[in-house]
Amino acid sequence: MIYSILLRKGKKQFLLFLWFLAFLAPGTYASSLADKPVKGNVKDEKNAGIPGVNVRIKGQNVAATTDASGNFVIKTKSENDVLVFSFVGYTTKEITVGNQSEINVTLEVDVNNWAK
What we know:
By secondary structure, the protein is α+β, with helices and mostly antiparallel strands. Helices cover 31% and strands 30% of the residues. It has helices spanning 2-32, 111-115, and strands at 36-43, 54-57, 63-65, 71-76, 82-86, 93-96, 102-106. The strands form 2 sheets. Strands 3-2-5-6 form a 4-stranded antiparallel β-sheet, with no helix packed on it. A 3-stranded mixed β-sheet has the order 4-1-7, with no helix packed on it.
């Protein structure tokens, strides 16, 4: 009788452990992949904010645009995400997010593009 009670208690603990693995552990993993906002500012060579710069994550369908002061916020999923900053008349710049939560960028005038 005692053996059957211990056996049942052991089964309950084992089932509880399985339930934890099946339902709670994946949530922990998913939260590590949650969107991480990265904010920043895009300026020109004269230190003025550039409005309308396209900020996108390379290889993904995620993008943002800078506001009137050159500020942006974009949601990334990985430290390996690469942000691509592009604007007509300026050289495109790529920056890996890494562990940064703020990225400030200075775009340079694309002299080669103006010569054509």
